[in-house]
Amino acid sequence: MYFHGTTKINEKGHLEIGGIDTIDLAQQFGTPLYVYDVELIRKRARGFKKTFDKLNVPAQVAYASKAFSTVAMVQLAKEEGLSLDVVSGGELYTALCAEFPPEKIHFHGNNKSVEEINMALDANIGCFVVDNFYELDLLAELCAAKKVKANILIRVTPGIEAHTHDYILTGQEDSKFGFDLQNGQAETALKQGMKSEWLNVLGIHCHIGSQIFETTGFILAAQKIFEKLAQWRDEHQYNPQVLNLGGGFGIRYTNEDEPLEPHQYVEKIIAEVKTQADIFKMTMPEIWIEPGRSLVGDAGTTLYKIGSRKEVPNVRNYLAVDGGMSDNIRPSLYQAKYEAVLANRPLEQAEETVSIAGKCCESGDMLIWDLPLPKTTNQDLLAVFCTGAYGYSMANNYNRIPRPPVVFVENGEATLVVKRESYQDLVRLDLPLNSSVKI
Ligand code: LLP
């Protein structure tokens, strides 16, 4: 079993994270429970950031907050000197509540609304990553109305297919995101942006996919973009200040995954951008990246209580936990794989292979297939590793299951950063058919 960050087995033989026994965490905060190893998040953030600093390359490392957006997490990103990506009014609101420096907020999204754009303009955010012609027109119009100028990055699709799950590919030509680099749309967008007195085209953005284990895709993307940049410099006298190569750096969910370390991704990216700038005799742009999963993914562990068991003779044994696709939809949605142990006796020899089912009313609500475990009882706790990215952020209330709380652990201290949803919370927005019912 591979343990990430500060996760280890303590003298009681229990799983410990951030210096705290997970059994105590489950007792104090209940289950299911998302536990985040704060030291590991800091380590990952520094892995990206310090590499740029060490090599003296002007850069921004923007945390893609879609991976896990809460006020405390945004505060942590601020503490670590990161910038922040948001993709909606809700993520922006969370960032503003956390008093994140607005000039370091980048606003993404393929269909930003008038209200969202106005909210971002009023907050004076750092830049908009413009996704399509509709947004280009709308943003210029809203800037004109407010008499403010906005910084923009033009999001391009360089036509690279990252080797990853189909559902999370975004860099290929047939994508809902961005302006195509090859068919001329990106150039048209650039010209339009340059012409507008309300827009300042800071640079170019691309994101080629997610859970990527090598650097080839980033290198190819940089090459394709530089070919065009050289052309645009000659034809339109355009010199970008910023090249944003997006996120997508992979993490180790199971031993099938072999990601690079943050510094390895960054070193390769810097080297390629330098090479390309040299080849085309261009000024080196600032390099921006947008890690989401790789900052928070392996820092998150979910604790569940084990409940019912169903044995299908000669077929499979199902073990159900007190959560499921409502707190982690990734196995059902992407066939994502996870590793897990019993938190109260992680060292014990496995005696059988079980499949971990969620409690939602849906056959597809399975968290892990074929997990070797000791014989369990309902006194046991299951710890599922690497649930820190797109777990809480994609959690839902299917079957009106309240979303679990989130606790940050660091140096032997536990801090509750998101409360458990209550049944009252679930009906908070409901209105009765007639006023005889009091909610
Ligand atoms: N930048 C852009 C423009 C993105 O679209 C994304 C992710 C990121 C950065 C961060 O990517 P990361 O470093 O986290 O891979 N729900 C899916 C992942 C969707 C990713 C969407 N975009 C999952 O659970 O795997």
The number of helical elements comes to: 12
User: What is the CATH homology-level superfamily of the largest domain?
Assistant: Alanine racemase
Principal-axes geometry comes out as globular
- Gyration radius, in Å: 23 Å
Q: The CATH topology of the largest domain is what? A: TIM Barrel
**Heteromolecules bound:** ligand LLP
What percentage of the residues does DSSP assign to strands (E)? 15-25%
CATH architecture of the largest domain: Alpha-Beta Barrel
Tally the structural domains: 2
What structural category characterises the helix and strand content? alpha/beta
How many beta-strand runs?
Answer: 21
Which helices and strands, and how do they pair?
Layout: E1 8-9, E2 15-17, E3 20-21, H1 22-29, E4 33-37, H2 38-54, E5 59-64, H3 71-79, E6 83-86, H4 89-97, E7 105-107, H5 114-123, E8 127-130, H6 133-146, E9 150-157, E10 179-180, H7 185-195, E11 199-205, H8 216-236, E12 242-244, H9 262-279, E13 286-289, H10 293-296, E14 300-312, E15 316-321, H11 330-334, E16 340-342, E17 352-357, E18 366-373, E19 381-385, E20 406-410, E21 413-418, H12 423-427
Parallel strand pairs: 4-20, 5-6, 5-13, 6-7, 7-8, 8-9, 9-10, 9-11, 11-12, 12-13, 15-17
Antiparallel strand pairs: 1-2, 2-3, 4-14, 14-15, 14-19, 16-19, 17-18, 20-21
Helix pairs in contact: 2-9, 5-6, 8-9
